[in-house]
Amino acid sequence: MASGEGFLTEEQREMLKIATQNAEILSSSLNSPTPKSPSPKEHHVKALGGGRASAAGGASVRHVRRSHSGKYIRVKKDGGGGKGTWGKLLDTDGEFRIDRNDPNYDSGEEPYELVGSAVCDPLDEYKKAVVSLIEEYFTTGDVDVAASDLRELRSSEYHPYFVKRLVSMAMDRHDKEKEMASVLLSALYADVISSAQISQGFFLLLESADDLEVDILDAVDILALFVARAVVDDILPPAFITRAGKTLPESSKGLQVLQTAEKSYLSAPHHAELVERRWGGSTHLTVEEVKKKIADLLREYVESGDTSEACRCIRQLGVSFFHHEVVKRALVLAMEIRTAEPLIRKLLKEAAEEGLISSSQMVKGFVRLAESLDDLALDIPSAKTLFQSLVPVAISEGWLDASFLKSSGKDGEVQDKDDEKLRRYKKEVVTIIHEYFLSDDIPELIRSLEDLAAPEFNPIFLKKLITLAMDRKNREKEMASILLSALHIEIFSTEDIVNGFVLLLESAEDTALDILDASNELALFLARAVIDDVLAPLNLEEIASRLPPKCSGTETVRMARSLVAARHGGERILRCWGGGTGWAVEDAKDKILKLLEEYESGGVVSEACQCIRDLAMPFFNHEVVKKALVMAMEKKNDRMLDLLQEGFNEGLITINQMTKGYGRIKDGLDDLALDIPNAKDKFGFYLEYAKERGWLLPSFSLSYPEAPPNLDASS
């Protein structure tokens, strides 16, 4: 035993010592007299009945035993010993320690320790990854590598943060990096990053504009330029500015960004070219360059037959408003190389199904080719036959809208004579409109239109006038509205005006590709026509009813109705383009009355004519004629006729305006006679006076007898 003590631990020695002491106590107790031990049965009864064991712990018999000292003690469950016991087999007490010096030491027996570690956020990892990706792109300029690296991240749900990070990093760098960022966004659009994600990314930028301004000088202006560039590049819809503006607080820098983008960049003339070249960008292509690229990609496609690659190249051009050129050149190529026709049809069909080439662009491409068939037939004798055979195939396969037949004639046959006349008319009126924008001479424009002698094309003139004005400054837009009012009085009927607006709204989608915010501009032109009495409010309903189903023009008409119905809508619409006059109709009438009263009380004819000229409302001069005649009847002062004569001699009051003024008096004679009993007699004399001097159109007639011969001007 003693020899084995060297192998015992301290705990074991302590337990051995206690066991030895217990053995000694036991031996001494056996030598002393003790009461008779109870039988097992009695012991069982005592334990249950509250004997010593019960008093000691109140435990069941199963967990009670007698110690070596003769005392009843409670033992541990499953045989574990209490004080003075060896304990159960493999018992590990809380005091047990592992001795690393033990030859049998195993590190696996060490207690486990939980080590805290930060949870990895996938968004944080994504942000870190795109920073290095963007840095590398700014160094290499390789768009394809950047797109490939972004795809490999496989975190498309976080792409809005990529847009935000790319733009915010470029904002703090040179113009070169800003241009590179815009080019990369255009390249990633649709292929890697969706339109919704682009919009969401820019909205995140607008929300953080206040923070960006702290670190970046001119952050508002730079971010506004990025927004404008995205709109010009067709990766942000123009409506984004309106939608985002409604959700941003009025005091936020983000709202200032949108206002700057809209007013300083997108409203400027030739804004697209200016925005694209603001950072010295070299991505802008001229029309001739685009045509060359289209021709090259089509020939490469005919050689390779790779439709997806051809669609990618078309998309990469970034000229969705010019896709009709792709259609036209593809069809010509199919006629030149007969074996290429199946490939060309496959390309156009797939481009239409993907939405790459819109229905309107497809029709426009076919129309352009139809118009040039005569010239094309000089190089390809069978061009007309091939074209007529291709049209029904395209319609049956679903990539050409059947509306093309309406514009080109039955079965695709081109109506040469009518088309030639229309083409010549369009060319002439474009020149006339440009001259008007330079000279502001309405009578000259009216004479030019009358010389063309094509009243059946009046709606087309209206469409061309407004389309050209929409792509210019507010001055030209105001001039177009004024001209429209004058034309309605002089030579255009209400039906012409209605038909012209229907043509405009039917082509609104195409117009929107070339002109930003075309829908809002058209709505203003419609509302202005109502305010100027060119159209009646009921005409808006008529226009809406004549539009095709699902036409975006219906929304434009609804917007125009809202503008007209708004409180003080008339005054706001009259000043929507900061017009040169800005007079409301009532204001103009009041000014005309005052200048006539001043002239009647002793004014000078030349001064009165200058006041009429200063009104700058030549389309409203019939009001001058009407009020002058009424005042002459009331005041019995025929000096007003001298004013009308001078105005007519100077060309200030045209024959049409004079006739309309006399016509208005004629229509209201019955009411006028209630206040001026001899109104009809007076008017008869004024009518003869006007006819003698050639003021009125020969078609003007009166249904009552002429004035008596003894009536003179002084009566």
TrEMBL record:
The biased composition feature labelled Polar residues covers 19-34
* Glycoprotein found in the keyword field: no
Protein name as catalogued: MA3 DOMAIN-CONTAINING TRANSLATION REGULATORY FACTOR 1-like isoform X1
GO (cellular component) term, any one? cytoplasm
Its family remark reads:
Belongs to the PDCD4 family.
- Keyword Repeat in annotation: yes
Where found, per UniProt?
Cytoplasm
Disordered, as annotated region:
18-77
UniProtKB keywords: Cytoplasm, Nucleus, Repeat, Translation regulation
